[in-house]
Amino acid sequence: MNVTIIGLGLIGGSMALDLKNRGFADRIIGVDKNINHRNIALLSKLVDETDDLEPAVRRAELVIIATPIDATKSLLPDILDQIAGTAKVVTDVGSTKAGIAGLVENHPNRKQYVASHPMAGTEFSGPLAAVSRLFDYKNAIICDSEKSSEFALSMVKQMYETLNMKLIFMDSHQHDMSAAYVSHMSHISSFVLSLAVLEKEKNEKNILNLASGGFASTVRLAKSSAEMWVPVFMQNSEYVLEVLDAYIEKLRDFRNSIDAGNEENLHELINQANAIQKIL
Predict the structure, then answer these.
(1) For residue 122, which of 2, 130, 221, 263 sits 20 to 30 Å off, Cα-Cα?
(2) Is pLDDT above 80 for 212?
(3) Cβ-based neighbour number of residue 95 at 10 Å
(4) Which residues pair with 139 in a beta bridge?
């Protein structure tokens, strides 16, 4: 089949590589408003060709929207309009789902859309960040599956199975709450720690000299792009704020224990946190 991928960054580019190499797609058509991204995707052989949005949608059996959340909300209703009277399937890979799903809930072609989120990525962006096997053995979330047709759902499931992903089915609101805790908060924590260190320590040489593996891994996500993450935080603000409040409360517990010299309470907090090992 022909697969059109809109957004040729880390996620879209990595999907393009493995969907073509593993035989799911005969031809990958790339769409991106950034001409440099289109040229890099062609030169890197991420895609077979690039095209404008409407002809690329017209020529595809499956359309994958791999753009930032705000762009996805703008594109999805228009693409669903374009596929009227066809058997084309549309999916997106955004890390928030409720706002997007709610936007097209009553669209006449809603059943041809599958809301999904592959839980994979790195701190890098753009087509040069695309890599093969990025999705292998990670989780792919499909939301509100009952609102998609069996045909559309089957095609998107097959796509993620080709990427060697484990499928999990969730309600879109449940997804957004869980993503706020395990993904969105991790990025905010990394951004905040990076800002705090940069503000306190003006001498960059000292930061680099003292930084160890633990610091590097903690702030790794601080290299993620604002273009990607600001829309995520805004679209998922209800749950992100809930998680931030819980996070700030735990920070206060640590601060108060250290301020009071309460070693017993610090031991208890750290021992409680160690329980995460059983999950991970």
Answers:
(1) 2
(2) no
(3) 25
(4) 166
